[in-house]
C-alpha cells in the first residue's frame, strides 16, 4: 500500500488551491492504480491547523491533530504540496508548516509541486521559491510542476488538464521506483534493563 499525502494551503473554502490539489491527487493515484498499486490518499488542509502551527513554531512541538497531520506527511511515500502565491512566493501558512516538519523527515520523498494565483505572471514562484525550499528539505521534486491561474479553470486551451496528468504520472513513477522505506522501530526490541546495568 502506497500512501500519498496532499498538503493544501488554500485559505478559502472552497479554494482553487484545494481544487488543484485534489486534481493532482486524482492523477497521481490513478496512475499508481493503473500500475497495479494500492494507494491511500490523505489530505491535510493547513487552514484547519493554523493556530496549532503557530503554537508548534513557538514551542517546537506539534500537538494533537496537528501532530498527526505532520506525521502523515513525514511518513508518506509521496507528497503533493500546493500553495496559493502571495507577493510572488508561497503563503506564510505553507512555509510555517514546512518549518515545523522535522529536519530530514522528507529526505528522498517524491514531491509534486503545485501553485495557484490570479494571473500567469506568478507562475515562476514555483521555480524560484518552492523548488529551493524542497531542495533544502532534500525531497525529490518531479520535473513537471503545475501552476493554475484563474483563467486556466474552465479554459479548454490552457493545457491545465494535460499538465496535471503529466505531473501525476511523474509522481507515480517516482513512488513506484522508490525503494521501500525501512519500517524498523528501534524500540521494538529494547535491551533488557539488567543488561544495561551489567554493561552488556
Quick summary:
This protein has 200 residues and is an alpha/beta fold.
Structural topology:
Elements: E1 2-8, H1 16-34, E2 39-45, H2 50-59, H3 64-74, E3 78-86, E4 89-90, H4 92-100, E5 110-117, H5 125-136, E6 140-141, E7 146-149, H6 160-177, H7 193-197
Parallel strand pairs: 1-2, 1-3, 3-5, 5-6, 5-7
Antiparallel strand pairs: 3-4
How would you characterize this protein structure?
The protein has one domain (2-197): Rossmann fold, CATH 3.40.50.360. The protein is an alpha/beta fold. The chain has seven helices and seven strands; from the N terminus they run βαβααββαβαββαα. Strand 1, helix 1 (16-34) and strand 2 form a beta-alpha-beta unit. The model has no long low-confidence stretch (mean pLDDT 90). The radius of gyration is 19 Å and the shape is globular. Helix 1 packs across helix 6 and helix 2 (50-59) crosses helix 4 (92-100).
What descriptive keywords fit this protein?
200 residues; Rossmann fold; 7 helices; oxidoreductase activity; alpha/beta; FMN reductase; oxidoreductase; NAD(P)H-dep_FMN_reductase; EC 1.5.1.-; 7-stranded mixed β-sheet
Amino acid at each position: 500500500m502506497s500512501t500519498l499525502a496532499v498538503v493544501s494551503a488554500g485559505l478559502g473554502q472552497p479554494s482553487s488551491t484545494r481544487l488543484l490539489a485534489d486534481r493532482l491527487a486524482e492523477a497521481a493515484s490513478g496512475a499508481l492504480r493503473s500500475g497495479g498499486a494500492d494507494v491511500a490518499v490523505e489530505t491535510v488542509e493547513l487552514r484547519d491547523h493554523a493556530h496549532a502551527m503557530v503554537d508548534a513554531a513557538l514551542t517546537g512541538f506539534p500537538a494533537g491533530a496537528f501532530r498527526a497531520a505532520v506525521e502523515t506527511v513525514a511518513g508518506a511515500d509521496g507528497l503533493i504540496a500546493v500553495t496559493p502565491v502571495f507577493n510572488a512566493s508561497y503563503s506564510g501558512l505553507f512555509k510555517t508548516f514546512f518549518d515545523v516538519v522535522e529536519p530530514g523527515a522528507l529526505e528522498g520523498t517524491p514531491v509534486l509541486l503545485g501553485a495557484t494565483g490570479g494571473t500567469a505572471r506568478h507562475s515562476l514562484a514555483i521555480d524560484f521559491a518552492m523548488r529551493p525550499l524542497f531542495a533544502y528539505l532534500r525531497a525529490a521534486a518531479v520535473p513537471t510542476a503545475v501552476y493554475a491561474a484563474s483563467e486556466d479553470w474552465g479554459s479548454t486551451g490552457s493545457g491545465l488538464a494535460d499538465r496535471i496528468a503529466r505531473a501525476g504520472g511523474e509522481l507515480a513513477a517516482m513512488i513506484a521506483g522508490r525503494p521501500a522505506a525501512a519500517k524498523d522501530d528501534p524500540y521494538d526490541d529494547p535491551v533488557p534493563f539488567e543488561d544495561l546495568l551489567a554493561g552488556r
